[in-house]
C-alpha cells in the first residue's frame, strides 16, 4: 500500500483510513477499470443507431480507451477469470436490457433479410474478441511477429478499420441454400 500512497502523493495512513483494507482498495481500482471499458459497450448497444454504426462506434470507443490504458483489457480479463462474481457485482444485470435490445435488432434484421440469424451473445463475443485480444496478447504477438511497438500500434490502427468490415461480413445473410 505504501507504493500506492507514494504514487498518489498521500501518506499510507490516509490511504488506509479511506479504504480500510487492501481488498477494498483493489475493489475500487477494479471498479474504475471496469467503468472505463464496460459502460461504453452497453451504451453503444442501447443506442438508436443502425447496427453497423453501433459496431463502428463501439470499435472506435474501445480502441481509443484501450490505447490510452493498454493494461485494462488484460487486467479485467484476468480478474473476470479469477473472480467472476466481483465482475458481475460491478456491472450488475441492468446491462442485460442492452443485450435483449441487440437480440431484437438482430432478429428484425434477419427477418428483413439484412442479416443472418445470430445470437446476440455470439455477436457480442465476436465483436469483443476481435477488439480485445490484440491488446490482451500484445506483448506475445510482438514477440512472435518481431514487430516493434510502433509497428504493432500501426497494425492496431489498421485493425480498428478492419473489425467493422469483418463484423459486416459476419452479419451478411447466407447465400447458400
From TrEMBL:
Keyword set, alphabetical order: DNA-binding, Transcription, Transcription regulation
Residue ranges of every copy of the HTH tetR-type domain listed in the record: 1-37
SUPFAM superfamilies tied to this protein: Homeodomain-like, Tetracyclin repressor-like, C-terminal domain
Alphabetical list of Pfam families matching this protein: TetR_C_29, TetR_N
A GO molecular function held by the record: DNA-binding transcription factor activity
Keyword flag Transcription regulation: yes
Organism superkingdom: Bacteria
Designated name of the protein: HTH tetR-type domain-containing protein
